[in-house]
Structures are given as C-alpha cells and as structure tokens.
Amino acid sequence: MSGAAQAMAEITAAAPQGMPAPVGADPHVVYVLRHADDNLILAQRLGEWISHAPELELDIAIANTAIDHLGQARALLTHAARLEGVGRDEDDLAMLRTERQFANLLIVEQPNCDFATTMARQLLLDAYQLSLWEALQRSLDETLAGIAAKALKEARYHFRHSSAWVVRLGDGTDDSHRRMQTGLDTMWRFTGEMLSGDSVDAAMVERGIGVDPATFRQTWEGRIDTVLAEATLTRPTDPYQRSGGRSGFHTEHLGHLLGEMQWMQRTYPGLEW
Asked: How far apart are CA 163 and CA 173, in angstroms?
C-alpha cells in the first residue's frame, strides 16, 4: 500500500461511526488543513491578549503576531478548499467544522495562562515553524510553497520576539524566572507531537509536497537550547508527551475556544457584514 493510500485508510478509519473523517479523506487536503488549523487556533488564542497584555507595546505586538497567523490560516484554508473541490470556502472550513474535525497541534489550543506561559508556547512553536516553512518553500505544491515563503519571513520575526521575551523573563527577577520556567514546563509535554510524523506526512513526502517533522528535531532542539541557556532556564525532562490533535482528538480547551470563535456564524448562518 502506498503512503497516500495508507494515509487515506487511516483518516477514514479514525472517524467515529456516522461522523465524517476529521478533515476530509484526501491526504493532500488533510496536510494543508493541519497547518491551517495550527495557525487559526493560535491566532484565536493570541487574540485573547488584546487589551489584556502587560503593556501597550506588547498589546500591539501580540495583536500583530495574531494577524500574521490568521493571514497564514486564511491562505491555507483557501488552498485546502480549492484542493477539496466540494464548494466549501475558507469561512466554511473555519466556522462550520466541529472540534473532532480540526487537526491542529494540541499546543496551540492550550490556555494562555500568564504572559510567561504564552511566550513559552510561542517560542516552542516559532522554532518549529521556522523549520517547517523553510522546508515547505521547496514543495512541489506551488501554492503551498508560496504561502511558506511569505510565512517564513513572519516566522523569523516571531522567533526573535518570543526568544527576546523568554530571555528577558528567564534572566530577570526571581519571580519572572519562576514563571518562565513554569510556563516552559507546562508547554513542554505538547512538543513531541510537533516533531512526530505519521502516514499523512509520509504520503506528502512521497509526493514531494510535504516534509517529515521528525527531521526538524535536531535543529529545533538547537534553537531552543540556545535560548534557554541565555535565559538561564532548564530544559524540561518530563518524559510524558500528549498527542492526538492531528487525528482530531483534542484537550477540553478546544471546544470552549471554538464555541466562542464560531458563535456568530453558527447562530446567524450566512451572515455577511
């Protein structure tokens, strides 16, 4: 069985009886939607900081980062809808799928908690997305490659910003150091999922469209360790790792997030403004 055929079989089998597969049955569509969902859910989480950030400059910076991720999500959702070819658009994919049909990484749906925890999540994800977009620039899917090229420029800024704050908080006061280490410890258990490939990734590698995230691990660890050393923080050693997001199995937090994000469209279907 080819990688694509295996991926399609696994996606279909993962759906509970009577429910559509989490994000469709074509591995190409699934692959694009996974990365769209990562950015869409992260944008929603970061948007929660608007008017609540520790200072005005940070309020603006976090809002701009959220807009970057939302823009990436929109481009990827539009591309996925075209690949799917069943008449859905970016709004349908964002607002009318259920929790079980989202395939984002678990780390992006975790609550913000305090600012240090948000920066820990951002650092871990930014280091991953740097490698992701660098690799996807070479995708045989020309649209995906174009999206990746633009996203890479944004990811470089995101990584500089999150790195600077992790260092500032980690190497700051006793309280900021404690909070930064706690945030890092909290988010670390979701990093294994980012760096693990599955049959969908394998099918996309086989077709020259995607990349196996497991190949990022060494580079990712190097980036993270460099920042942690400067921040006087300790890399967590907790061996427990959560996963399931790529298959539509999420933490309890995603349902609450979607309830807020999708409320308007589900209450007033087709509303335009």
From this structure: 17
